Amino acid sequence: MSKNHKNLLNNLKQLRTSAGITQQELSDSAEVSRKSINAIENGIYVPSTVLALKIAKTLNCSIEDLFQLP
After folding, report:
1. Residue pLDDT, tens place only, 8-24
2. Total domain count for the chain?
């Protein structure tokens, strides 16, 4: 994980709640634990490309909608 990961802008929680999806539902769809989704939302963990793609597919958005560099 990069030292600069805290600079990553993360919109996951907003997009997930707007879609009416719980952390558990998203984690089931992305095949990861609910704790992983929580860690991503809180900026503790930066997901792999594959996981980011699975999340974006579930939320019907682009990776750029989820994560951005400042």
Report:
1. 899 999 999 999 999 99
2. 1
- Enumerate residues 6+ apart whose C-beta is below 8 A from 22: 16
Using the structure block, give the residue that is written with the tokens 């907003």.
14
pTM: 0.88
CATH at 38: 1.10.260.40
Q: Which domain holds residue 24?
A: 5-63
Question: pLDDT tens, 38-51?
Answer: 999 998 999 999 99
Question: Is residue 35 within 8 Å of 3, Cβ to Cβ?
Answer: no
Q: Report the alpha-carbon distance of residue 42 to residue 59 in Å, rounded.
A: 18
